[in-house]
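Input chain follows. Return C-alpha cells only.
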Amino acid sequence: QLQLVESGGGLVQPGGSLRLSCAGSGSDLSYYALGWFRQAPGKEREPVICTSSSDDKSYNADSVKGRFTISRDNSRKRVYLQMTSLKPEDTGVYFCNTPIRAKDGYWGQGTQVTVPS
C-alpha cells in the first residue's frame, strides 16, 4: 500500500524559496498521478499543483502559477515541490497525495510552511 511522507517545511521570509519533498514507499510511484495540496489556517484543503503519472501534464492553481514547480523522481520514489517568491498567503500545511487517495480522504501528516506577513 502506498505511503507518502512529506518533509522540508519551515519558516521562510516573503520572497524566499523552499523545496518540499515527499517520500513514497509501498508502491511504484510511476503508477500514480501525484500532487501537492495545502490547507491554510481556517480554510479547506485545496490542490496546489499536480502532475500526471507520466509527468507530461500538470495542473497549477492560479495562485501559484509561475512560482511553484512540481517534479518527480520515480526511481527514488520522490516528489518535490519547489516554491519561489513565497507570499504570506502561501502559509499552510502542505500535503502530497494522489488524487484518488485525496478524494477518499487518506492523508499524511503534511509539512508546515510559514511565510510571515
